[in-house]
Amino acid sequence: xxxxxxxxxxxxxxxxxxxxxxxxxxxxxxxxxxxxxxxxxxxxxxxxxxxxxxxxxxxxxxxxxxxxxxxxxxxxxxxxxxxxxxxxxxxxxxxxxxxxxxxxxxxxxxxxxxxxxxxxxxxxxxxxxxxxxxxxxxxxxxxxxxxxxxxxxxxxxxxxxxxxxxxxxxxxxxxxxxxxxxxxxxxxxxxxxxxxxxxxxxxxxxxxxxxxxxxx
Length: 216
What we know:
Elements: H1 10-19, E1 44-47, E2 50-52, H2 55-65, E3 74-78, H3 84-93, E4 98-103, H4 106-116, H5 120-128, E5 131-135, E6 148-153, H6 162-166, E7 168-179, E8 184-191, E9 197-205
Parallel strand pairs: 3-4, 3-6, 4-5, 6-7
Antiparallel strand pairs: 1-2, 7-8, 8-9
């Protein structure tokens, strides 16, 4: 999976992603979240050993979760990093839903809040409580707000952590990259109405690992 949809502007990037069949719509300008070359279809460092994923990966994750994103959905974004996809998910669920971004580094939580505050829409999402960023170990999810209609994991886990699966509503879906630094694949995990679990191994990827927070 190696789409390349770079553009010279946010509009061009979105048009190219749509032309390649990766998205249907998006309103969030990556210039508020990527430190440089925001419209290039590649991952970029945002510091603290973290990255903002390539646009085609964010598009693929969003489209995967879209059937479970409704007007009152609750979504967990593990490894929220820059806050970009958290903002996108908040737009997709509408005014009655909530997205919780979890990261294990306070500097990344602060970065996501600063990024989101650069737009009037992002600022409103934070002040209304429709988006909340929390410092926590994402491998354990955030049980205080569970269950979730959708969970996105933005870093490679060594396994599909049971804590995250348990925090899925029935029905619900999780998008999670799983593997080590040599081999990773996206897994799509569905919890059905009866609570049964279906796991599907999808395409190969390369994400930064979902790890412990660095020691102070």
